[in-house]
Amino acid sequence: MDTLFLRGVSVPAVSAAIPLESRHTRDVNPPCFLNDDNIQPEVNSTLASSFEKIKDQVQDLKAKIELQITRMQTSYCIERNSDALMSAIHMFSLSDNEAFVHEFTINQPSFLEKITGHYDMLDNLAYTLEELSETAADDHAKQNLLQIQARTYNAMCTIKTLLRSQNKHLTNEVPSGRNSFQIDGICDQHQMEYITMLNGYLLAEYLDLMYTTVLNHQN
């Protein structure tokens, strides 16, 4: 199929981004959630290059989460076989990759809505990590959560750049969301962190499949 080029509109330059201060971003400032005044055009960027970058970033996120899950399994107070943990399995449908490619081929507006949905899922993960970092047991645990949040922001930034290039604009204030969990003691904290890591891993795996599939379709 023909290569699709991004429209010639201004998009943010991630390397020169100025973090937006907000009450949600006290510890890790998102690198490209900035004022629209601070933007640079991307010249001759292709959708394929954006997809490749998103794929690499979610693979990096997945690897970092996998490492953290391994650490948690040996040092955290967790119920590894609980029903709550198994609920993560039902978050995503891997058959979505076929619809993702189909919409990329024939229905770009719907395809961009799917990408916006990916951004929203990552935003929710970033929000949960932000909340958990505030109740982390110690600085080491907090930094582990914020490092994963930073990798989540990397993928969000690339998605935001792609969507802006297609004249779709997203909110600057991140992370945003609402959680209903309550932390009552160290084991509750450990359990919620562990569930979040499992959900985050499945999300990264899901997005890796989505963007790998659409890249393979282009080749």
Walk me through the structure.
With 219 residues, the protein is mainly α. It has one domain. Helices cover 60% and strands 2% of the residues. It contains 6 helices and 2 strands; from the N terminus they run ββαααααα. The protein has helices at 47-75, 83-86, 96-106, 108-134, 139-165, 186-218; strands at 10-11, 40-41. The chain has a two-stranded antiparallel sheet with strand order 1-2. α1 (47-75) packs antiparallel against α5 (139-165), α3 (96-106) packs across α4 and α3 packs across α6 (186-218). The longest helix is centred in the last third of the chain and has 33 residues, at 186-218. It is elongated. Residues 1-28 and 34-41 have low confidence and may be disordered.
